Structure formats: structure tokens, C-alpha cells
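Aim 2, interim progress. The first record below pairs a target sequence with its C-alpha cells.
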Amino acid sequence: MIIPEHEIRESAIEGRGVFLKSNVKKGELLVIYTYGISELIHKEYHDQVCRDLENSPHRDVVDSSVRYVDNWFIFDAYSKHNLCFGSREGDFVNHSFEPAMIYHCGLCFAARDLKAGDELTVDYRYFMSEDLEGFCDRHTGRQIRGFSGREAFVRSLRQLNGIFSDEQVS
């Protein structure tokens, strides 16, 4: 679920992307990937299904799972029961090594102040398993390969700490 007003349109990054219709402040919650009919699946099952993309009978798992925390992935079971990849707005969030959002345990926060018209991007290395081949970033030529569960968790915590460190909590 994408929270702020947005539109899906052609992206210079890849295919279509998600673009803001209004400004958002650094730290705002923008996307929730743990909504609807979600199931937790273990990394072993996730990796087994994802290794042979061409022949996988579980393409819905390949297309709609992201790392949740440690060795657990969230599988968006909505696609299993209804439509395929490309039917949900979150499917159009593109990758960037300098993303507009920080992903942490199923939630995406604005990494900086964003303006209307900015594309919502996330670093796919937080979504993916470190034991899968990954793929090449079209713009930089760099390999996109997942972080370990612990590394993804610690990195995102540090990034969030940087965003919220100056916030006053009562």
C-alpha cells in the first residue's frame, strides 16, 4: 500500500514507476509492504523457488516476496489468490542505489525531503536473498545482490537512526 497521493507512469529507470503528486518530508511513512493477505515464508523455501526463475511453478512467490527480517520473507499471497505481478502499485517501485526510500521490515520511509514528481525508489538489495544470483543495474552496470538478513536489518536501522536522530520524543 502506497500512502501518499501518487501516480504510476513511464520511468526513466525501468518500465513504469511510482511518482509523488505532493511533497513529503524526510522520515514520512510512504509504503507498507506488509498489508493485505501476507504470508511469512522461510529463506530456504524462498531461495529454492527463486533459483530457477524460468521453470518455477511458484512464479507468484518470485514476483511478490520481499525480505521481512532475518531469514523470513513476506510473500504477498494476494497475487496467488487473485492477480499476477503488476497488479499492485508497489510492484512499480524501481531500484536505485541512492533510493528515495529506506526499506525496513516491510515499511518504507522517505530517505530525504521529496518533491511532487519525484519517483519512489528503493534499494532492492534489502528485498533480496544474498544467496541468489541477483541482476545488473541498467544505469550503473553494478551488480544488485541481496544483503544477508542481519546486514539488511542493521543497515536499515542505521539509516533510520540517521533520519530520526534529531526528532524529539516526548
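The second target in this work package is listed in the same format:
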Amino acid sequence: MPTATRHPLRALRSRDFRIYFAGQLVSMAGTWMQQIAMGWLIYKLTDSALVLGLLGFASQVPVLLFSALGGVWSDRMDRRRLMMATQTLALLQALTLALLTWQGWITPTLLLSMAFSWAASTPWTCRCGNPWWCIWWRTGRNWPTPSR
């Protein structure tokens, strides 16, 4: 007896998932724009490739340090609340960056610390904020399920 094949995009049939997926697309686009703007701004302020590299380093080190712990923690918490909290923190950080830049108060040290703080919130949503993991989970693929 042949097994029925499942459509790879069947998760998009769910209204809630479509809303979630659209929100994640907007969030990711904003994150990419913010990362480009921060790199451009720090290079404009310092005219130093070394400081630009430090910004990239500050944006990645927290992910390296906290991903394992963040994955375990996100498996044990309510994903919706965790994602809403981290997305709200990212929004507040982006607004703070915009305000500081608009007022002319931004410094390379502030930019580096903001990049580090933004990246520190990323590992906590590695499972609940990843739309591809949600597609696999919603379509019934044999991927690991959270232990609750």
C-alpha cells in the first residue's frame, strides 16, 4: 500500500501559521536592515575596518556562547511568550538605536554594546522563532519534538 505524500507547504493552510510566518518575514527583514545599518554607521563613525570587525564579533559571540543553553531553555518554556518577549526586546533595541542615532548621541562603544545585547537575545528563540522548524513540525516530519 503506497503511503500518501504530504505537500511541503501544507503548514501555510493554517491561518495562524500564515500570520506567524508573515510576522517572521517582517522581523527578519528588519533585522537584516538593522545589521547593515549598524555596520555602515560604525564604519562611518570610526573609518576603521578593525572596529567594523569587532561589531561583527560582538554580534556573533553571544550566539556561540548561549545557543546550547538557549535551546534547552526554549524547549522548557512557553514558545509564544518567549518569542513575544524576545521580539519586543529586539524592537525596543531597534527603537533605541534609531533614537540615539537621530539625536546624534550614538558612539562606537554604544553600537558595540547594542550589537552584543541584541545578539544575546537571539539564542533564546532558536527553536521557537525559527519558521523552518515550525514548518517541519506542523507538516508532521520526523523532527525532534520538545520535551515537556
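Confidence is low (pLDDT under 50) at residues 134-148. This observation will shape the mutagenesis plan for the next reporting period.
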